[in-house]
From TrEMBL:
PANTHER family: ALL TRANS-POLYPRENYL-DIPHOSPHATE SYNTHASE PDSS1, GERANYLGERANYL PYROPHOSPHATE SYNTHASE. This is Terpenoid synthase. The keyword Magnesium applies. Keywords: Magnesium, Metal-binding, Transferase. Belongs to the FPP/GGPP synthase family.
Length: 322
């Protein structure tokens, strides 16, 4: 199943979003224009705009009003990716060179700031302080999550709660907000808006856990980035946390993961130990529990065709390869 199949309820609207992603960040300054539009042209899953559109479609057929919000959500996500690639010194994303690789750190930082500012400009058109407040709070917490991740690199003493708190801010929060705002924009009943917010949160948690699993086991060409990139950067994810605690070679793994040099030079050995442990299976079980919680939230929502799309998305995440 592809993104097209999952989001077929909003295919036309997503095509409009794709067009507006480029037009909304056009700049008269060629250097900024090239750097800012580079990531858009690289493509992507467009999860955040899709969730905003699908959430709104539960309650209305006309989504014209939601499209600027959908564009803004993807621009916020893109801005964080541009900055992440600078921090992580990443040369590839989605199988293409990063903005950092093509234009350097300084241009990347300004391009990310520019894209983020354009997202706020789009949202301001609604003249809804409640929507701006939700996005502002989410943006602050996302920054906190990135700082937490940076500070936790090579920290072999972190546990499950530390990891879950980190990925909540890294991924789950913006997906949750996307689902929430799609309903908020239409002034939907509070309990339905809350159900969509919770669905997005649980789904986002599962999505990031699955992403962390794929960093150990995926096909590099399908994934679109080097396998083991988290390990090389000292980012210790759930499969490794489990292996440190329960695998017979946990002490050896702990020593390697605590060392930047060993993470860089022994990444294949580290990946092998984690894959041989039950860490991958454990992480997958945690992901599935979050997906089940996400599906449970759907019972509060109207029985319309979009509801089945939300259920299929959860099933897709449990089996994704990219």
């Amino acid at each position: 199943m592809t993104n097209f199949d999952l989001f077929n309820q909003v295919t036309d609207e997503l095509a409009i979003v794709e067009e507006r992603l480029i037009s909304s960040i056009k700049s008269d300054l060629p250097l900024l224009d090239q750097a800012s539009t580079h990531l858009v042209k690289a493509g992507g899953k467009r999860l955040r705009p899709a969730f905003a559109l699908l959430s709104a479609k539960m309650f209305t057929e006309s989504l014209d009003e939601v499209i600027p919000l959908a564009v803004a959500l993807e621009l916020i996500h893109m801005a964080t990716l541009v900055h992440d690639d600078v921090i992580d010194n990443s040369s590839l994303r989605r199988g293409r060179e990063t903005v950092k690789s093509g234009w350097g750190n300084r241009v990347s930082i300004y391009a990310g700031n520019y894209v983020f500012a354009r997202s706020l400009s789009l949202v301001s058109l609604y003249q809804r302080s409640d929507i701006l407040e939700v996005l502002a709070e989410a943006s602050m917490r996302i920054c906190e999550g990135e700082i937490n991740q940076m500070m936790s690199c090579y920290d072999v003493n972190q546990g499950l709660k530390d990891y879950l708190r980190r990925i909540e801010r890294k991924t789950a929060l913006l997906i949750s907000v996307s689902c929430q705002l799609g309903a908020m924009l239409l002034n939907v009943e509070e309990y339905k808006t809350r159900a969509l917010k919770n669905y997005g949160y649980y789904l986002g948690m599962a999505f990031q856990i699955t992403d962390d699993i794929l960093d150990f086991v995926a096909d590099e060409e399908i994934l679109g980035k080097p396998v083991g990139s988290d390990i090389k950067q000292g980012v210790i994810t759930l499969p490794a946390i489990y292996a440190i605690k329960f695998d017979p070679r946990g002490d050896q793994l702990r020593n390697w993961l605590a060392s930047p040099e060993e993470c860089a030079n022994r990444s294949e050995d580290i990946i092998q130990i984690v894959n041989d442990s039950e860490g991958i299976d454990y992480a997958y079980q945690v992901s599935c529990r979050y997906l089940e919680k996400a599906r449970q939230e759907l019972r509060f929502l109207p029985d319309v065709p979009v509801k089945e799309s939300f259920n299929n998305i959860a099933l897709f995440i449990s089996n994704r390869e990219f």
